[in-house]
Request: fold
Amino acid sequence: MTIKAVLLDLDDTLWPVAPVIQHAEATLYTWMQQHVPNVTAQHDIVSLRSLRQALVTTDPRFSYDLWALRHQLLQNVFRQYDEDVGKADQAMAVFAHARNQVSLYPDVAPALGVLGQRVKLGTISNGFADLQAIGLAGHFHVSVAAHQFGCAKPDARIFHAACDGLGLAPYEVLYVGDDLLLDVQGAQQAGLKAGWMNRRSLVNDDPRHSHVKPDAEFKDLHDLTQWL
Reply:
């Protein structure tokens, strides 16, 4: 197996995502309490999340463009409660800034420097984290985000786009992510090798994805470096 490049997932692969989203939603809600009080008089974070989940089914775009989904939800509730719809752009800027305040796993910064000396690096993400704002963009030759590209993992097109950006065939590329279906199975079906980033030492006994067999399994990026 000759691997010339490694593509990485972002959320829950390079940083834990749950605390990031919780922080971003809390930061946004605090901003809304000050700037759109009519909305927060009627909704809390949980009810807004429920509205957003219901909105997903109303437009195919929302299945891959999470920025547009959140923006549309804000526009809807601002309009419903007689707030300035134009404030949705300001609200999204507040959310995005907080969304990019991630805490990298301890291995990430040192390992990326080593990995980048051995192979080309890139990323594919279904989220809308900004690698430039986070400070990691310089490590990667290509970064493909679902909301900009127009489809999300596990669609083969997003994997192929990243390979094209690297100038490599899919079989020359290893994709590493934490989700067995979106990341591992998706990459393998697109012709890439796939590694499972299993930071929590999970056992793959869930019948929904027990059929998925990663080409490799890693506990962190140092493990990936040694495997290469």
User: Anything to note?
Assistant: The domain at 5-16+105-227 is CATH 3.40.50.1000 (Rossmann fold). The chain has two domains: 5-16+105-227, 18-99. The mean pLDDT is 96. The radius of gyration is 19 Å.
